[in-house]
Amino acid sequence: MAYDLFVSPTVFRWKGYRFYFFSREEPRVHIHVRDAGGQAKFWIEPEVELEGNYGLKEDALSEILSVVKERKQEILNAWREHFSG
Description:
By secondary structure, the protein is an alpha+beta fold. 36% of the residues lie in helices and 32% in strands. Strands 1-2-3-4-5 form a 5-stranded antiparallel beta sheet, covered by helices on one side.
């Protein structure tokens, strides 16, 4: 596996957004989201919530938050799989 894929694996892509996490960051479960317009970080536990927004527009952010909530279990599964190894 390529080093960069291991360090920041992509969990999924949706409408041009990449949903991923960094291997060497804090242990609290979270997901990063990025596209050409900016990026954001969302806590996954204990509740899904925005941690920070860096350039994404409010309407896009709202839509992304909904996707993160809908796919929370998928994100948790990917997190556990990645960090258990």
